[in-house]
Write a structure and sequence with these properties.
Length: 156
Amino acid sequence: MQSFDARFVAACDAERALLERLASLLADEQRALLRLDGAPLIAIARDKEALLAELAEQGKERRLLCRDAALTTPDDIARWLPAQDAAVRDAWLRLETALMRARTLNDANAQTSRERATMAESLLSEIRDTLRREAGYDRSGAQATPAGSGRKLGSA
């Protein structure tokens, strides 16, 4: 049977690999959001959901190892980690770094998404208002009285 250290390093590395895939997917999402390209966002959302489920499943192994070693809080890990092998410390650091990168990208994407949604709603509202005015109807839907002679451009 593998040692605790070897199992812990393997679990951290497997979880980190998934987090790196997630970060790559989030970077793709960010590019699509910035381009206002909605088509790839649907596929990315589906891939992200599947990857998050896989990540949750993979994370169980590391969490069980930590629980069995009485490492149930971040403070427990912070006290335990300095006394561990370099391989264990490095695996944990790589995992934390990958997690921070994915969180940062996700937070940025959420902010960009909110900004883009607000911008789109504002633009749609402005377009609707313009179309209503151009069509000769007021906000209540009644026929507006045209200003001036009532003739449209191009009429004889």
